Amino acid sequence: HSVPRGFGQHIRRPAGLHVVDSDDVVCIMMDIAGTTSFAVSQPPRIMAELLHKVYITANYIVEREALPYVYIHEIVGDSLLLICNADFMVRHRSRTAAISIYVARE
């Protein structure tokens, strides 16, 4: 994994809160509704396939439509956290909202 620009200095420091304030950054958090109740009624393989499809689809959309302006920060189960226009990324301030809305919609 790559470390975002500016955070390398924190790697060898004691654990603590590392915060960077940025203007014009958009965070998109997505979660598939109802997966907990769906998961208890499905075999583990079905859930693994579903969650893998979520990852593959999100990765494809970001790579095809949004890189280098949108970054998949985290995928956990059925939840995704995307970041747009952060300081460690290629920035396009005038298009941040449009890019973010497009990716979230896709």
Give the gist of this structure:
This protein is α+β, with helices and mostly antiparallel strands and 106 residues long. It contains 3 helices and 3 strands, in the order βααββα.
Key structural traits:
alpha+beta
Description:
Helix content is 36%, strand content 18%. The chain is globular and about 45 Å long. It is of the alpha+beta class. It has a 3-stranded antiparallel beta sheet with strand order 1-3-2, covered by helices on one side. Strand 2 and strand 3 form a beta hairpin. The chain has helices at 35-39, 44-66, 96-105, and strands spanning 26-31, 70-76, 79-84.
Q: How do the strands and helices of this protein lay out in sequence?
A:
Layout: E1 26-31, H1 35-39, H2 44-66, E2 70-76, E3 79-84, H3 96-105
Antiparallel strand pairs: 1-3, 2-3
Number of helices: 3
Q: In which order are the strands of the major sheet placed?
A: 1-3-2
- The SSE string, one letter per element, is EHHEEH
How many E-type strands?
Answer: 3
Low-confidence stretches: none
Q: Classify the beta-strand content into a percent band.
A: 15-25%
- Counting helices, strands and paired strands, the structural category is alpha+beta
Rg result: 16 Å
* Distance from first to last alpha carbon: 25 Å
**Largest pleated sheet:** 3 strands, antiparallel
| Fraction of residues in H or I helices | 25-40%
